[in-house]
Amino acid sequence: MGKVNITITINEETANWARIEAAKQRSSISRMLGEMLESQYQQEHAYTQAMQDFFSRKPQPVSSGETLPRREDRYDR
Questions:
Q1: Distance separating alpha carbons of residues 15 and 69, to the nearest angstrom
Q2: Containing structural domain, residue 42
Q3: Least packed by Cβ within 10 Å: which of 28, 39, 45, 62?
Q4: Does 68 map to a domain?
């Protein structure tokens, strides 16, 4: 997959923090932001796929025809 350059504008305090964090990771701000965005994309994509998979399935009955126990019988309160 190809790479695209993007320009962002952030305040100076945030930029200083980003420089320090990137240096701690022996990375650049660009690479650090790219990895953060990629991670967020992967999480959201996986969630969307899982949700689509769930809703594409045929509904299944909760019970196999058995009589369910009464609440009073299950919980002795």
A1: 61
A2: 30-55
A3: 62
A4: no
